[in-house]
Amino acid sequence: MSYYKPLQYAVPPEEEGFLLKTILQKRLGVSRKLLSRVKLTEKGIMLNGERVYISVKVAAGDLVEVRMELEESEDIMPQEMPLDIIFEDDELLILAKKAGMIVHPTQGHYVNTIANGVVHYWREKGETVRFRPIHRLDQETSGVLAIAKNAFVHQQISEQMIAHVVQKEYLALVHGVVEQDEGTIDAPIDRNPDEPHIRIVIESGYRAVTHYKVEQRYAIMTLVRLRLETGRTHQIRVHMKYIGHPLLGDKMYGPEELSTDSGQAESLNTICPNSTIIERQALHAARLGFVHPRTREWIQFDAPLPEDMTKAIEQVKELS
Fold first, then answer.
1. CB–CB of 199/265 below 8 Å?
2. CATH topology for 71-163?
3. Exposed end of the chain (fewer CB within 10 Å): N or C?
4. Pairing between strand 142-148 and 283-291?
5. pTM to 2 decimal places
6. Could you tell me if 265 and 227 are in contact, meaning their C-beta atoms sit under 8 angstroms apart?
């Protein structure tokens, strides 16, 4: 049986007499679900090189080790494709996702996804790893995508997301000139009762909070930086439409239903038709930061503005 690199912890003198279960959960951060899994493996939980029950007490200087079995994504077809790798170590793979790419295979869409390319890449390297995206990006959204290489890393960063430790920042091109330099949109979101695939701001919805800051104003559009406090489906797209500044190229939440006194959305379509500015929603996951689950150090990754958004800015500069 083969394992990932073990998690290790040397028991300090002040923790002598603690239960091994306490060390595993409070010091190594192993969740109850993962603990249940590793307990069943041959060398899942070791104390000084010996397999033990988690109910034993530890002594100062003891070496605690947790091993997870190597896993593969057997249901994902390997497929060679170019990957823009920002960072990789034994625990994580960080990519710059291109717009138009689906992250994970779905029913009726089994190939040409990020997962297919990553599984092929790992197999070519001789690594036995299961594909575990830590978060998802919409098909049309570009930017930083993090993939965990084992269950522990996935669990740890997922917990950081719940605790709002993870920093996620997006860049978006929106219709109209956003007047406030920065602001917060605190407006609940839920499905549209008439069209369940669409989200709307609705009083009975789930709390959703988006912070925005103007990066650059142009004559008829604005580049904004957005930080999510919550992670509702389509949150940025719904919130920006709600304040009268929908994303460029957004076919679902675009300006066709927008009514503004300024007429800025109409002006943009008149001067430079939406389809010729950008072919997808102008949303880019620009930054992702979190605490590395093994080193416990803060790490941060950035992806530059993609070419299609840069070209959209240049077009509007020239035509406005």
1. no
2. Pseudouridine synthase (3.30.2350)
3. N
4. parallel
5. 0.86
6. no
Q: What share of the chain is helix, strand, coil (3-state, %, to 5)?
A: 25, 30, 45
Pull the structure tokens for residue 59: 């002594």
**How wide is the angle at C-alpha 171 spanned by C-alphas 168 and 177, nearest 5°?**
135
Q: Which CATH superfamily is domain 168-284+312-319 in?
A: Pseudouridine synthase (3.30.2350.10)
The residues spanned by each domain of the chain are: 7-66, 71-163, 168-284+312-319
Active-site entry in 75, 89, 138, 186? 138
Query: Within a 10 A sphere around the Cβ of 18, how many other Cβ atoms?
Result: 17
Q: Is the pLDDT of residue 268 over 60?
A: no
**Domain 7-66: CATH superfamily, name plus number:** RNA-binding S4 domain (3.10.290.10)
The token pair at 52 is 């033990």
pLDDT of residue 316: 86
Place of tokens 């620009």: 286
138 carries an active-site annotation: yes
The CA distance from 11 to 18, in Å, is 9
| Rg value, the chain, Cα | 23
Rounded-to-10 torsion of CA 32, 33, 38, 39: 60
Q: In the structure, what pLDDT confidence band is assigned to residue 1 with cuts at 50, 70 and 90?
A: low
H-state helical runs in the chain: 20-22, 32-39, 114-125, 151-162, 235-242, 264-271, 274-277, 307-319
Q: Regarding predicted confidence, which is higher, 155 or 262?
A: 155
CA atoms of 241 and 57, how far apart (whole Å): 57
Residue spans of beta strands (DSSP E) within 165-256: 167-175, 182-186, 189-191, 199-201, 209-217, 221-228
Classify residue 24 by its DSSP letter.
Answer: I
| 168-284+312-319 shares the fold of 71-163 | yes
